[in-house]
Amino acid sequence: MSDVAVEVRGLRKRYGAVAAVDGVSLGVRAGEIVSLLGPSGCGKTTTLRAIAGFERPDEGEIFIGGERMTHVPPNRRHVAMVFQGYALFPHMTVADNVGFGLRMRGEAAAPKAAAVTRALELVRLGGYEQRLPKQLSGGQQQRVALARALAIEPRVLLLDEPLSNLDAKLRQEMRVELKGILKDTRIATVFVTHDQEEALVLSDGIVLMNQGRIEQEGAPYEIYERPRTSFAAAFIGQANFFRGVVREARPGGGVVVEADGLRLRGVACAEIAVGAPAVVAVRQERVRVLRASGGGYDNLLPARIELLNYLGASIQLVCSAGGRTLTAVLGAVGETDAPRERGAAVLLGWREGDALVFPSSG
Ligand SMILES: Nc1ncnc2c1ncn2[C@@H]1O[C@H](COP(=O)(O)OP(=O)(O)OP(=O)(O)O)[C@@H](O)[C@H]1O
Ligand SMILES: [Mg+2]
């Protein structure tokens, strides 16, 4: 496809005994933001560095704008990267840092200055041109690094946790602004994060990685609503987990799992046979908290409210049920009928379709 700005095919990279990246393929179109999401050490930075050209793949190919770039040096790939530690030049002013790539390209002074100003305005640092990095906060330094990458108007922007040093409020604002900037500029972006919320908000597509491999990829909605493995269900969102054995499996995906004497109705997210060990995941916002006489749910479990955690927009209830701990999240407004006193006897209820059943490895 012609508008695929960056494509990775079958990338593998080992460091000694460690397979840092173990067969990753992905594509990003112009104007699209794809997030690499996954736990520490799963190979996100290594993948990004291979796209940028700082890491030579053991196997696989990198294409940028349809051109094979696997062995082309970084400065000829039309990519800009913001590194995990943002790596500003300490002895250069903000303006010189941001203009660095343009100077390397031999840009004349006037257009260079205009591009620097524009890039700094994009990251809301207009007026900071003459400061040195050490005169800036961590979050401001991070934004200078972003401006430096944007200034060269790359075809592909590679961002390695670019918002990690910002405070919670600024981080949320920058997330939205960054999305706006990237959509306007039509840059293809690969965004590395281990923050699931950031990935959900920012991305057109999420590539969830686990130990050097792609666990699942898809739109944020798909990954959240239809995780294909218990790893994906555990990594994105917060869920209650039950381990048990499949006792019934109906055509169409409905299954019954027996877990320590409970019979749980759910839907199979992958092929699973009667007698097989299984994991059941129920997102905490799908658990309803009912008065002890409640009904109308496929799964009902008597429980007691142990703790209430007030989260502002919502309330998390920590409940005990026959030696298990389950959590449920209620909106702070609405559902006013739901019991929410500590010690209250309740029924936790959820529908079959909200209990996701995965094969268990053991
Ligand atoms: N230069 C290196 N030499 C040896 N091992 C390395 C090197 N770089 C990375 N690794 C290893 O490769 C694996 C993947 O590392 P990578 O930096 O890609 O992870 P990551 O997903 O970016 O993690 P984080 O979220 O912590 O930044 C890790 O096990 C890491 O220890
Ligand atoms: Mg990393």
Structure description:
With 362 residues, the protein is an alpha+beta fold. It has 2 domains: 4-226, P-loop containing nucleotide triphosphate hydrolases (Rossmann fold); 238-359, RNA polymerase II/Efflux pump adaptor protein, barrel-sandwich hybrid domain (OB fold (Dihydrolipoamide Acetyltransferase, E2P)). The protein contains 9 helices and 20 strands. It has helices at 44-52, 94-98, 100-104, 109-122, 138-151, 168-185, 196-202, 220-225, 230-235; strands at 4-15, 18-29, 33-37, 59-64, 67-68, 79-82, 156-160, 188-193, 205-210, 213-218, 239-249, 254-259, 262-268, 277-283, 288-291, 299-310, 314-321, 324-331, 345-350, 355-359. Helix 4 crosses helix 5 (138-151). Bound molecules: adenosine-5'-triphosphate (ATP) and magnesium ion. Residues 15, 18, 20, 38, 40-46, 84, 194 line the site of adenosine-5'-triphosphate.
How would you summarize the topology of this molecule?
Layout: E1 4-15, E2 18-29, E3 33-37, H1 44-52, E4 59-64, E5 67-68, E6 79-82, H2 94-98, H3 100-104, H4 109-122, H5 138-151, E7 156-160, H6 168-185, E8 188-193, H7 196-202, E9 205-210, E10 213-218, H8 220-225, H9 230-235, E11 239-249, E12 254-259, E13 262-268, E14 277-283, E15 288-291, E16 299-310, E17 314-321, E18 324-331, E19 345-350, E20 355-359
Parallel strand pairs: 3-8, 3-9, 6-7, 7-8, 13-20
Antiparallel strand pairs: 1-2, 1-4, 4-5, 9-10, 11-12, 11-14, 12-13, 14-20, 15-19, 16-17, 16-19, 17-18
The protein binds adenosine-5'-triphosphate and magnesium ion (MG).
